[in-house]
């Protein structure tokens, strides 16, 4: 009996290692026999005290230290735990921010431990502002420790001057007319004029005006992140931003973007009303004329719509900018209710439309019992160059009572020849996972690595063929099964989607 089991494991391992694309060692073993003690000792870092971890983090570069907050809940605030504390009023706080950034502008400062690239400002009565920054590169402002019993709703307009063609033309023309005259240009704000990335957390109506004034001449700002701004109702941004991230602003209803250089848009929250740049809005209905061109788009609308009439929310103005997207997150209900009807109602206008550059795709579904893959299969027909597919079923995701059945017509069914990995998460049972895997193989004629989440440390469940695969097919029985596997270099074999850590 034992010899038979060993032979079966050896055959399975040989199958797994036969694909040269995978090139990584996958070790099969009986996970259930591994003791809890051994599993805990695999993670040495987590066994360390917080003080030790904080000391280690203090020697990391600023960007890497901030990224540790994404590891788990325990790590969320470790990177800023050793910040010094300063006291004063809100006006003093912004003065201190300016002094802090100017004081950290030399080369020596970038090599100092964490307590020197961040501080907390105590406004009294338990109110704190957390400030962290990197010289001439990034600034983080966190207002989440400000007490607000009744958050006031507010509209926020950010006009960030961009060193545009008009600015340079104006300088050139004046110097041409009067070459001996000294050109006096408007000097940017001394606080943020060199900052390239700004991260704002829990901004309220009280702090929004001060931040707007501080940012008014941020000509070199390339990346802006806004998170958890309770009370924020509408947001208008006019700038030369390349990256914009808006997460968990629960009251946000409308977004007006005048960002012609925008390449990355990451949004998590309710579907809101979109509006693009007024200078090019008349071209939104022309296929090759767009307000901007996105290469990275996270549209996590699993919370449902914020507006009552989703057909007039302006989603098309964003969708038309996604033709060159390389990394995408999308909810099933958005495809069914907003994208598919447009493709079907205007077949002549959208003929030949594909996501030809899309390589990483995260599909968020809402199925609770029997999984229906028709919408997913329909969308995949538009993704001929897809390499990695991530499918997550979230039972809490929004779902309309009457769903729209859609099927996209394409000129030729793509084979998805580049598809290397399919990762499944949240499926109700293994049977549904196998059914989806079989359909992907049948429709697109591909053999990607298909994995599912495991409950064990450094492990995953891997889909493999049964040893008697051909015989089971003749008997019309399932010829695939998932096996628990321990994987060396798990992240390299099965990396997370870039949006999953936000």
Your description of this structure?
With 502 residues, this protein is an alpha/beta fold. The protein is 25% helix and 24% strand. It has a 17-stranded mixed beta sheet, sandwiched between helices. A 4-stranded parallel beta sheet has the order 6-9-11-13. Helix 10 links the parallel strand 16 (360-365) and strand 17 (388-393). It starts with a helix and ends in a 9-residue tail after the last helix. Residues 12-41, 105-114, 163-190 and 278-289 have low confidence and may be disordered.
Keywords, please?
about 25% helix; single chain; four-stranded parallel beta sheet; alpha/beta; globular; 13 helices; about 500 residues; 17-stranded mixed beta sheet
Distance between the termini: 48 Å
Radius of gyration, in angstroms, nearest whole number:
26 Å
> Helical amount among residues, as a percent range?
10-25%
Oligomer: single chain
Mean pLDDT: 77
Main β-sheet: number of strands, strand sense, barrel status?
17 strands, mixed
The shape is: globular
Q: Structural class, from secondary structure content?
A: alpha/beta
Tally of helical segments: 13
Low-confidence residue ranges: 12-41, 105-114, 163-190, 278-289
Q: In percent terms, what proportion of residues is strand?
A: 15-25%
Number of strands: 21
In short:
The protein is of the alpha/beta class.
Chain-wise SSE layout:
Elements: H1 2-17, E1 26-28, H2 36-41, H3 50-57, H4 62-67, E2 84-87, H5 90-103, E3 118-124, E4 127-134, E5 138-145, E6 154-159, H6 165-177, E7 197-201, H7 205-215, E8 223-227, E9 232-238, E10 243-247, E11 254-258, E12 264-268, E13 273-275, E14 296-300, H8 315-319, E15 327-331, H9 332-345, E16 360-365, H10 374-380, E17 388-393, E18 421-425, H11 430-444, E19 449-453, E20 459-465, H12 469-474, E21 480-487, H13 490-493
Parallel strand pairs: 2-3, 5-7, 6-9, 7-8, 8-10, 9-11, 10-12, 11-13, 12-14, 14-15, 15-16, 16-17, 17-18, 18-19
Antiparallel strand pairs: 1-21, 3-4, 4-5, 19-20, 20-21
């Amino acid at each position: 009996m034992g010899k038979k089991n060993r032979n079966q494991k050896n055959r399975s391992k040989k199958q797994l290692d036969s694909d040269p694309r995978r090139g990584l060692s996958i070790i099969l073993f009986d996970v259930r026999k591994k003791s809890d003690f051994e599993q805990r000792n695999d993670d040495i870092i987590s066994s360390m005290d917080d003080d030790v971890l904080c000391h280690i983090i203090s020697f990391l570069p600023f960007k890497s230290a901030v990224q540790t907050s994404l590891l788990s809940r325990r790590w969320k605030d470790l990177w800023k735990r050793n910040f010094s504390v300063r006291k004063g009023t809100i006006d003093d706080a912004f003065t201190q921010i300016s002094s802090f950034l100017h004081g950290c502008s030399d080369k020596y400062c970038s090599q100092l431990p964490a307590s020197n690239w961040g501080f907390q400002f105590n406004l009294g009565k338990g109110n704190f502002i957390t400030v962290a920054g990197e010289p001439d590169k990034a600034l983080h402002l966190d207002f989440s420790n400000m007490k607000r019993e009744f958050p006031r709703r507010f509209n926020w307009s950010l006009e960030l001057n961009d060193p545009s063609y008009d600015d340079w033309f104006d300088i050139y023309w004046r110097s041409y007319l009067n070459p001996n005259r000294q050109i006096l240009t408007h000097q940017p704000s001394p606080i943020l004029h060199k900052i390239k990335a700004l991260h704002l957390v829990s901004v309220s109506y009280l702090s929004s005006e001060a931040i707007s004034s501080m940012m008014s001449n941020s000509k070199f700002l390339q990346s802006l992140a806004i998170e958890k701004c309770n009370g924020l109702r509408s947001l208008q941004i006019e700038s030369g931003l390349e990256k914009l991230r808006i997460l968990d602003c629960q009251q946000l209803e409308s977004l007006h973007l005048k960002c012609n250089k925008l390449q990355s848009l990451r949004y998590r929250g309710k579907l809101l009303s979109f509006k693009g740049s007024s200078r090019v809005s008349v071209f939104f209905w022309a296929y090759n004329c767009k307000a901007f061109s996105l290469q990275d788009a996270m549209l996590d609308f699993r919370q449902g719509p914020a507006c009552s009439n989703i057909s007039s929310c302006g989603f098309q103005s964003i969708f038309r900018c996604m033709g060159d997207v390389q990394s995408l997150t999308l909810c099933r209900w958005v495809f069914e209710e907003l994208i598919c009807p447009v493709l079907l109602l205007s077949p002549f206008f959208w003929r030949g439309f594909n996501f030809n550059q899309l390589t990483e795709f995260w599909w968020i579904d809402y199925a609770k019992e029997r999984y229906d893959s028709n919408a997913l299969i329909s969308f995949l027909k538009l993704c001929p160059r897809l390499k990695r597919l991530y499918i997550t079923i979230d039972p809490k995701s929004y779902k309309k009572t009457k769903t729209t059945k859609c099927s996209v017509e394409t000129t030729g069914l793509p084979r998805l020849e580049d598809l290397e990995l399919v990762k499944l998460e949240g499926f109700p049972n293994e049977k549904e996972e196998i059914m989806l895997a079989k359909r992907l193989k049948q429709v697109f004629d591909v053999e990607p690595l298909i994995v599912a989440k495991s409950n064990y440390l450094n492990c995953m469940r891997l889909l493999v063929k049964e040893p008697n695969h051909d015989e089971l097919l003749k008997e019309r029985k399932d010829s695939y099964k998932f096996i628990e596997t321990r994987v060396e270099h798990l992240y390299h074999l099965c990396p997370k989607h870039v949006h999953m850590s936000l």
